[in-house]
Amino acid sequence: MTVSEQALVSRASLVFRRLGPRVRVAFCQLPLTAFVVVAVTTQLPAAGATAPWGLIIGLGLQIVLGIACLAVPWERLRDNAPLAIPLLDLVSIWILRNGEGQIVGVGNLAVFPVIWLAASTMRAAWVLPLSILAPLAIALPNLLSGLPNPTPGQVTGTIVLPLGMFTVAIAIRAAGAGLRTQARELERQRQQLRGLLDQAQTAERLLAAIFDAVDTGIVALSEDARPLRANRRFLSLLEDAGVTDGLMGSNLADLPLRMQDGRTPVSPDQHPFRRAADREPLHGEVFWLGGGDSARALSVRSLPLDGPNGGAVATFDDVTDLMRAVDAKAELVRTVAHEFRSPLTSVLGHVELVLDDPGLSQPAASRLGVAHASAERLLRLATDLLASSSERLPVSPVPTDLAETLLERAESAQLAAKAARIRIDVDVEDPLPAQADPFRIGQAVDNLLSNAIKYSPSGGTVTLSAHTDDGWITIGVADTGMGIRPEDQPRVFERFFRSDAARRAHIPGMGLGLAITRMIAERHGGELDFESEPERGSLFTLRIPAPS
Ligand code: ADP
Question: Does ligand 1 come within 6 angstroms of the Cβ of 481?
Fold first, then answer.
């Protein structure tokens, strides 16, 4: 076949495949049925009053086959089920050729079913013998009827018909060999695809069941923060918070949220949906959604999606009860600390008055001195508790020279340092102009110095340094002490956190100092950082913006 013929054949077979199976089968069959109807109806008048049975049965079978082509739901049957039609066509041609009222020359119509069978996906081992044996069966009775002296026409007819049909079948098989291989390959790929599709559908159903069964809200976001898919829990969390309307089509970064304090609205660049869609991983930050009693606190995690389209998967845990319990605990601590402060201040005032009495005996004065120191410690504790459990740590920055504050704090730490046999080195830029609250910065440096002394063995050195650089004032407190283990480092700023090492060594403390110090740094628009190595020491760095 030439290239253009091949193109024509493959275009024809494409058109043919696009037709529905019933139309396709009818298209193959109806020319033969039409031929038979015409041939038989032209014979019937010549047959006289009683129509010969051969013609009637042959014609009837053809009509039934023609109707079957259109009526049978081939698409629901096996692929080669329609091949029953050409096989029955051969039977009907045999009857028309050899039954009563036989039509001479009708055997040539066997070319229709033979072409059909040869062009099908039926194996050559079946098609080729069939294309010779069926026409032979059609032609043979005519030869047998002439025995023992058949006419040359009978002999030729019996040889030519099977050989002609066989040649047609071979030619069609040869022409369609490539197409059939392609068809088989396509069929194999189709089966493979179907298998893969089944597997994918099963996996999809399983995932969907797991997705909906978990008690965590999950949503997949596009890169413009629109929800691609969400599980039931996510939708029910939003519903609980009273936010539902038209959500699945909208931009989730427009959802009004509040920060962990429950009051401050989340700014667009802090919005967790925006940040998640921008591929920023989130690790359990808490946001409030909705208002009033139905407000929900959600702990958000997110993981960027791999692939060219970006986006992320975000998960949400309802931590409302936990947040309310934490608030209740902080409120209790605040109240107790507050109630402690007034009586303690009064105790201290009265003890100081008694201590000022010149007639006080030495033993009584020393006992009262111990009571005074203990009351002072309690007051400091109550003050720390109040500061750490309140989000409102008042900070009032004023123009000040921090060098003065720092030198004063180093001086007052000398007493404790001497008692612990620790040297304090000071390397402070003087003057150190700043826009800061000297009382709060002093408090922060006190905490850092007292830690550095507490957590260093005797003989160690603590260095207080401070300088201005690149728009920042950096205050450093370094020690040569026990250091902090890597696994404890992420937790040192947590309220009430104390390392095992600190507890085991019975070093006194409440685990509040660093939390308060960090709060002071942040209220100044700065930050508190540290580096630490176990058994070698730590360096805490407090940075605040330098005045411009
Ligand atoms: P406290 O000192 O009262 O326990 P902090 O909040 O000041 O509370 O410190 C928290 C924890 O961090 C401490 O218990 C200790 O384990 C660790 N830590 C803080 N500063 C140092 C330091 N300079 N060296 C070693 N560990 C430290």
Answer: yes
Residue type, 99: G
Per-10-residue mean pLDDT of the chain, 548 residues long, equals 59 65 87 89 72 87 92 88 94 90 84 91 90 93 88 88 92 83 88 95 93 93 89 90 72 88 88 91 91 90 84 93 87 85 90 91 91 86 79 84 95 91 96 94 94 95 96 97 94 89 89 91 95 96 94
- State the number of CA atoms in the 13 A half-sphere of 214 facing the CB: 16
Instruction: Describe the chain by its helix, strand, coil percentages, rounded to 5.
Output: 60, 15, 25
The token pair that represents 434 in the structure block: 């700043």
Whole-angstrom distance, CA of residue 312 vs CA of residue 154: 83
Whose C-alpha lies nearest to ligand 1, atom 12? 492
pLDDT at 531: 97
Let me know: does 65 contact 33? Beta carbons within 8 Å: yes
- At 502, list the tokens: 């600190």
Ligand 1 binding pocket includes 507 (Cβ within 6 Å)? no
pLDDT of residue 100: 82
d(CA 222, CA 305): 9
Ligand 1 neighbourhood includes 530 CB (under 6 angstroms): no
Rounded to the nearest angstrom, the distance between the alpha carbon of 492 and the centre of ligand 1 is 7
pLDDT digits (tens, 9 = 90+) for 485-521: 999 999 999 888 899 999 999 998 888 899 989 999 9
Contacts of 356 (CB under 8 A, 6+ apart): none
Mutate to test the pocket of ligand 1, among 484, 488, 500, 519 (most ligand atoms within 8 A of CB): 484
Cis before 308? omega within 30: no
Q: Which of 407, 339, 344, 402 is nearest to 371 (CA)?
A: 344
Strands (E), 392-490: 398-401, 423-428, 433-436, 461-469, 472-479
- In SS3 terms, 60-108 reads as HHHHHHHHHHHHCCHHHCCCCHHHHHHHHHHHHHHHHHHCCCCCCCHHH
Q: What is the pLDDT of residues 388-444, one digit of tens each?
A: 776 667 889 999 999 999 999 999 899 889 999 999 999 999 999 999 999 899 999
H or E segment and range at residue 460: none
- The number of residues making up the chain comes to 548
Ligand 1 atom having least distance to the Cα of 516 = 6
